[in-house]
Amino acid sequence: MALAIASQALGNTANNSIPIYQNPSHSAKDRAADLLSRMTWVQKIGQMGGVRRLLGSDMSFNQTSYEILAEYQNGILGFGENYNLASDVLPIANMVREEQIHSTPLGIPYITVTDSVNSIYNLGGTLFPPSLSLAASFNLPLYKLAVGVIRDENVAVGTRWVLSPELDLAKEPHGGRVGEMFGEDKYLVGEFGTAYVNTMQQLDSNGYVKVACTVKHFVFGQSSGGINAASQYGGINHIMNEQAVPFIKVVRNANPYSLMASYSAVDRVPMAANKFLLQTVLRNTIGFNGVIMSDAGAISELHSLHLVSNSAEDAAVKALKAGLGLELSPGQPAMFPNLVTMANDSTIVSLVNDAVQRLLEIKFVTGTFDEPLPTMENLKSTLRNETHLDIARKASEEAIVLLKNDGTLPLSPPTTNSSRIAVLGPLAELLVMGSYAPNNSTEPLHGKPFLQSLQDFIGADNVDYFQGVDITDISDSSGISAAVSVARQAGLAIVCLGSVSVLAEDGAANWRTDGEFFAHPSLGFPGLQQDVLDAVLDTGVPTLLIMTGGQGFVLQNSTVNRASAILHSFLAGESTGEALVDILYGSVNPSGKLPITLPPDSGSTPIYYDYLPSDVGSYWSLPVLDRANPPFKFGYGLSYTTFDFSTAEVRITSDNTNVSVLASVTVSNTGSVLGKEVAQLYFRQQYTAIETPNKQLIRFTKIELAPGEKTMINWTIASDELGYWQNLEWVVDSGNFTFWIGSSSRDEDLESITIAV
Amino acid sequence: MALAIASQALGNTANNSIPIYQNPSHSAKDRAADLLSRMTWVQKIGQMGGVRRLLGSDMSFNQTSYEILAEYQNGILGFGENYNLASDVLPIANMVREEQIHSTPLGIPYITVTDSVNSIYNLGGTLFPPSLSLAASFNLPLYKLAVGVIRDENVAVGTRWVLSPELDLAKEPHGGRVGEMFGEDKYLVGEFGTAYVNTMQQLDSNGYVKVACTVKHFVFGQSSGGINAASQYGGINHIMNEQAVPFIKVVRNANPYSLMASYSAVDRVPMAANKFLLQTVLRNTIGFNGVIMSDAGAISELHSLHLVSNSAEDAAVKALKAGLGLELSPGQPAMFPNLVTMANDSTIVSLVNDAVQRLLEIKFVTGTFDEPLPTMENLKSTLRNETHLDIARKASEEAIVLLKNDGTLPLSPPTTNSSRIAVLGPLAELLVMGSYAPNNSTEPLHGKPFLQSLQDFIGADNVDYFQGVDITDISDSSGISAAVSVARQAGLAIVCLGSVSVLAEDGAANWRTDGEFFAHPSLGFPGLQQDVLDAVLDTGVPTLLIMTGGQGFVLQNSTVNRASAILHSFLAGESTGEALVDILYGSVNPSGKLPITLPPDSGSTPIYYDYLPSDVGSYWSLPVLDRANPPFKFGYGLSYTTFDFSTAEVRITSDNTNVSVLASVTVSNTGSVLGKEVAQLYFRQQYTAIETPNKQLIRFTKIELAPGEKTMINWTIASDELGYWQNLEWVVDSGNFTFWIGSSSRDEDLESITIAV
């Protein structure tokens, strides 16, 4: 519509009287170049930062602070405090946006850039579970619907650039950000990441990118001790064959407009100053051509934390030279404003011009110069509409993984008051959604904790709730015996344990052990939670364990052997409490699969299914850590029905130029209820020039089958997909390849076929 | 003497009638080249392997197996089973040695190559504690005496080449080989390694190297999950600034004749095939010019484990091309014999010639061609003589670290029968010496466990021993209450806990959780040992904790707060039991310092004092793992006296070509007994081009002071020592440097001085 108006305006005016940058008929690239040529040095530097925290809590707006900041940092706009309501924020954001367009010399609009993990940045949107949970669905079509919802709600608040998706591999379980990631597998992460970016960056009816994406954090996920900003060792083969893999796929298949460099020092060079990884590897080898931005304080930390810059000026220059073009700086002072004094340095000037050109192109492709500001009317019809809530419910249902079931589940529908249930454990009354979700876990504006969902379904009178212990306090075990009594009286116990990852302002913030700024040496349940579970299991009362948290937990043998059923619900969306109830009572058949391998012990790390062959130790070794057979392995998850995999076949096909592998398998629902299964295809080349994983996922497909129904799944894999990186070269060798087809990464769930390719 | 005879023989013969290689007046290099020119292809290949297991248990010798092996593997000789007595082995070894000299075409003698960690390879030598324990002494002069003993005893059995020292950094506490290493610090490891090699490789009176050394394992120590043969990620800055540092120092300052490549795949390239690290880095950058050998099965594992070679032949070729020249292959088949079919490949021929030249040079420099075989007479006068045993006792005394003392220690000498002591815990009756010590921990041929040492000192009637629990069994806690009763009755308890690292044939082998082929996810005491300790501490009876094992253990807060005293004795030498008693009763004042930081938790890894600045997390991070302040940090250890550090000074000096830092401090014994203290100097450059450790050790000096005595310590550090490696270049920047002087790596034990260099 805006485009139509602009075109009409053009018709009434001589083309040469309108600057190219204001003319939508020109390409984004040309418009950006034209605008760049009109900008002062200070205006250029201004684009390389922005105002990230427009509003404080309770909608506070500090005009003086804003103006001081905006003088040298005026490219991007962020909303600040998550707990403000989107509908309250919009008018103020629009006021600032308008002012920027109309009261600055060239009228260069802000582009609004925010985090967007579960939902839009502020309260008021549809709340999905975060990435790890959605990855557990292994359902890409459903995921695309979910991202479409989040995208449209972002557009409705005027956010046209998000700081997602996070493509880091969840291979360090001690870290606090596992729940933000898509799991441990590079293929799975790449597929979900590609789906995210392609969905977010879809073009609107005017041909503008709806929401530009930022893939992050290049590279992160295996920091020392799991600490957020800590270093990692990685050599280049490790990085290219593991951490970079999802980035390579997403860059090549979805063209994300920006990328965030991580906080980490990689091989002792902080990523914000890592020219080798950002230029030689990311730009030249991988082919990324968008904006590279800093993680929030990362440029400043070159000076203050890593100690590789001896001044703020040096930090700014090092980051610019490494390839960074945008500084996200919620904390002040920012570093890039130091560049304003360097207008006479031709190297700096050239790099700044490159950076601003890329930044302006994003503004043009997203229609920031052309489309009208978002309206309250559209916001109200978009946020939390019925379609959106329905998709969120479905996403939550598929994000839950059933890990054990002795037949206790599904429960019979409650018929009389005599079917009482004891709910125990401190996680039952929280709706824990991760450290980027604008909701309150103790009193959610949207959604209900599991306890309330169960009470609403079977009646509060039928539920005996007792917390038993605090989440993190280890000094008070006095409630355990009462919890045991409650379990005994009810005859069926549901124990809800896990960890808390929420915003700092959340009602449960004091119980956090997980989330962006946390690392947890212990991988068990925090505090005395395991003690409650043990005590209840000691009674012999049938017990269901529901785990909550954006991480894997150690499941002790005595828990696995004695619990009647075990579910992992990861981090919640607003419908997760209800989805859990639906699964418990069988109206929803669980279909999630583990996107991470659960650690057998706090010290048993790293643990993941795609270890290198030598990582189990030599042939005469006696490893205590059995990497090959962890108790709950990637890709594993149960259903209320059973599936049979049969007539698996793998063969080669080729035309004149390409060789492909065709793999197929027939999956049958051999049980008695409708269910979904995830067929998984793994491979390994028998011998490779450098060490490659014992097996790795190459395809997965989720299917729904009625009882007795069967379907054949066909996969085509180009032989080029079967290679690996050696010293920055992609190598595809011929040789024997083994393919495994089945329902999880566990050997016992897979059939193997070896062929020559 | 042999040299004199040879020279005399030369006098009676025309020089040109004796082949150069038989003429000791020529250089080792020329003799090797001459011999090489006379050798057949098969003879050359034969030198690149050997017979590692001459004898089985009970002195069994299989002539047929020996001959089959020796056909293509006849360069080196090893003794096989450790538990055979050296005096029994010598005649058979000499028989085989003689036969090789007299019955093969060129009479090329074997060189005897064995492990030598605590002592000579076989039973019968003086038994020292292994490396971690000796490093805890921080006493280099004493260490050189100890190595001199082990060297002379090796010469006495004819071993002229050892598979030591191990220069790996003990930075992965889950691994089983920490006890074999010199600790976590690269400087400390380099100093001990240099002392080892310079002492071992001393020249004998004939000018021959007494015992050639093998530095190992290049590179190892941070394998995934602590598993022996597992991979590591390391980039080149990490390797050069950390793992390679001791190798660089020892290669440049002590010229070891050989080096062992590790089992690990580094950045996905197994070290046995890692041409980049062995050629570009080790040979060209570091300057190592000796023999590179495989770890035992490492060449074979290229094919069988890492899957980077598709055949045994390919494995042999890859290893040779990477730079390996000797295959240590206790398990058969070996890979290098496959080279016998490749005499027509000029590249292979050239590499084999290079390798054999280096191997022969070691034989010439060690006098293998010239000196007589070892005699039984010399063996008997050398092994376990009084001087040797005295040095071993002193070494054990200084290898024990006192970590806490509330004043309970030293104990008063026993005067009456009423001073009873309860000894509890399963480690009291074992003498655990590590997985390379030829002794039996349950019935040691030499040395006494702590329990027996205490009984001998205060009378068996005064000691109430109760094991309490097994070492690894977690099913039986029934003995704990009896242990508690024994403690209560005695009124003083000594609880002996730890882990077992012994040879596979040892009486305690079933209790092993530590040693070469083990990894331990848990860093606590194995089994239910902590439960015994907790139960005894609960009683309030004064309790001393003695830890045993080649590793750090988690010391829980409740242990540290309640134990009266805590000692770590690491792995034992034959005198460790008695040394512990001497320390308990004050006839020896403890003076050891921690060569490793103790882990606060099983999941709190990596943990070491010289972390990178960013490894604590960013300025707004809330790390749960507090790397800066672990409870027991590198360099820490208590004494029965007190020391004062005063008037610390650091200044610059320069002559025309060099700049040096002069550091000094005055240390006073301010207590009432004679004692030893380790003065430690650490440094950090304020800003560096890549991230460097928060601080690192650069000097240490151990001194003995009488009460009231003081001494000034002066250190000179060339400015060139203050650099770091960046992309294979050694960088020395000017700038501000902070130096810390004190008694441990803890901030509270250090005084800091910052100067410009």
Structure, explained:
The structure is a homodimer of 757-residue chains. Chain A has 757 residues and is an alpha/beta fold. Helix content of chain A is 30%, strand content 17%. The first copy, chain A, has three domains: 2-11 and 28-381, Alpha-Beta Barrel (TIM Barrel); 400-591, Glycoside hydrolase family 3 C-terminal domain (Rossmann fold); 643-756, Immunoglobulins (Immunoglobulin-like, Sandwich). Chain A contains 21 helices and 24 strands. In chain A, strand 2, helix 5 (86-103) and strand 3 (111-114) form a beta-alpha-beta unit. In chain A, helix 7 packs across helix 8 (186-200), helix 17 crosses helix 21 (576-584) and helix 18 (480-490) runs parallel beside helix 19 (529-539). The longest helix of chain A has 20 residues, at 346-365. The model of chain A is unreliable at 1-14 (pLDDT under 50). The interface between A and B is large, with 76 and 76 residues.
Sequence-ordered SSE layout with sheet pairings:
2 copies of one chain form a homodimer.
Chain A: H1 2-11, H2 28-38, H3 41-47, E1 50-51, H4 63-72, E2 76-77, H5 86-103, E3 111-114, H6 131-136, H7 140-157, E4 159-162, H8 186-200, E5 214-218, H9 236-243, H10 245-254, E6 258-261, E7 265-266, E8 269-270, H11 275-286, E9 291-293, H12 298-304, H13 312-322, H14 346-365, H15 376-382, H16 386-398, E10 401-405, E11 421-424, H17 450-458, E12 463-466, H18 480-490, E13 493-498, H19 529-539, E14 543-548, H20 557-562, E15 565-568, H21 576-584, E16 643-654, E17 659-669, E18 675-685, E19 696-705, E20 710-718, E21 724-726, E22 729-731, E23 736-742, E24 750-756
Parallel strand pairs in A: 1-2, 2-3, 3-4, 5-6, 6-9, 11-12, 11-13, 13-14, 14-15
Antiparallel strand pairs in A: 7-8, 10-15, 16-17, 17-20, 18-19, 18-23, 21-22, 23-24
Helix pairs in contact in A: 2-14, 7-8, 7-15, 7-16, 8-10, 12-13, 16-21, 17-21, 18-19
